[in-house]
Amino acid sequence: MEKKDNVFLMLVTAVAALGGLLFGFDTAVISGTVPFIRSYFALDDIALGWAVSSLLIGCIGGVLASGKPADLLGRRMTLLAAAFLFFVSAVGSALSEHLSTFIVFRFIGGLAVGTASMLSPMYITEISPAARRGSLVSLNQLAIVIGILAAFFSNYMLVSTGDDNWRWMLSVMGVPAVLFFAALLFVPESPRWLAQKHRKAEAFAILQRINGTALATAEMASIEASLERDEKGSYTEVFSKRMAPILWIGIVAAVFQQITGINSIMYYAPMIFAKTGIGLDSAFMQTIAVGGINFLFTLVAIRWIDRIGRKPLLIAGTAGMIVSLFALTAAFYFERFEGYLVLGCVLLYIASFAASLGPVTWVVIAEIFPNRLRSEAMSVAIMVLWGACFLVSLTFPYMLNVLGGGAAFLVFGIMCVLNLVFILLKVPETKGRSLEELEKMLLKH
Ligand code: BGC
Questions:
Q1: What is the spatial distance between Cα 385 and Cα 398, in angstroms, rounded to a whole number?
Q2: Does the beta carbon of 261 sit less than 6 angstroms from any atom of ligand 1?
Q3: pTM value?
Q4: Cα 145 to ligand 1 centre (Å)
């Protein structure tokens, strides 16, 4: 029996997934600070939108900027830089005295989130055995969700700490950032990157530890074969006519993950619940319920994604999102906030997203592109994803306060209907097929 170091693989994956955890924490922590930074910096709706969204512009920059260092310095070094930026952003935003400094430090946090959103899945993909790649990529989404939950929870614990409560909420992230940095010092480089840099012995040693000698030898051979072709991958080719149909699927899936409104709830949940007339404290409790449901239903997706496939999950989840959004539209339109109606609708919406668009979008974006162009094509799709995320979170406070919750949720509901049509007509079922089979199936020759 060949020795495979499973514990090592799980530890290394967990360290990389800390990037996902910080991604989740940093994007969600803002929601608990909204009422307090609004009054501290005296923000109107548009200024608040900027304070919340500045991180997301940084994310776009992070995705753009991390490709080159990831190739030149390595995946691990680039993730180390992200961990450092996470720390700087936590401390800097917590100590901010002016809106402009606050925005700059949140932007720096965004650079870190954007980098982690590319590099953590990339690193996990490159280090994991082919047969387990899918579930390990989904674990990164689970880490994102745990980060979001941790942010909600820590915000809830800190809400009564006085005038500086929002500063404490933001500074908490410094702790996992330091942990991420320290843990990264102990993980190896990606074997695929090492092979690219002609450090083949080191690459082989890592592959051997994870896969055993026989598989490692085969894997090494296919990495070398793919690297020969890798050198020819370019953005010109990503935007070529031949790639266009798949690139569009990746881009449209990324846009729909965001314009169906998930982050209006993730970032502004207390504001939505407060509109229904319940107190801020229980609004925070309900926000934690949102995080808990998000976590549980991501587990549902992880369990079913390789059994029933991507498409049935996407279809069922989108249908659930449509029902809950139209019910929310009606509740806000007729101002019927009694009982737990709004909370129930919001939780159904989150559960539906968590079991479908949440993880499956990342999996599909990672699967549909050919090996050779994966990193370039993924970066285009992920950049668009952050762009769409930015637009939604910038405009949502305005939509909620000026047009009303009814109109905001109606728009998201209509986007979900369009997304359902897109899924039914355009998204390919990728379950159970090897990446090479997918390449043949999706890329017309
Ligand atoms: C999305 C994030 C979102 C999170 C919620 C992720 O897949 O990309 O924008 O905040 O899921 O769970």
A1: 21
A2: no
A3: 0.88
A4: 7
266 C-alpha vs ligand 1 centroid, how far in Å?
Answer: 8
> For 30-54, what is each residue's pLDDT tens digit?
888 988 999 999 998 888 888 888 9
Distance 358 CA to ligand 1 centre (A): 6
CA of 386 to the centre of ligand 1 (A): 10
Beta strands in 93-195 (DSSP E): none
Distance between CA atoms of residues 175 and 189, nearest Å: 24
Does ligand 1 lie within 6 Å of residue 144's CB atom?
yes
DSSP state of 213: H
Alpha-carbon span 61 to 209, nearest angstrom: 35
Q: Which amino acid is residue 432, in one-letter code?
A: G
Domains and CATH numbers, the chain: 6-187+230-443 (1.20.1250.20)
Instruction: For residues 314 and 355, give the distance between their C-alpha atoms in angstroms, rounded to a whole number.
Output: 8
Q: How far apart are the first and last CA of the chain?
A: 42
Reply yes or no on whether the pLDDT at 232 is more than 60.
no
Q: For ligand 1, is residue 27 a contact (CB within 6 Å)?
A: yes
The pLDDT of 347-356, averaged and rounded, is 96
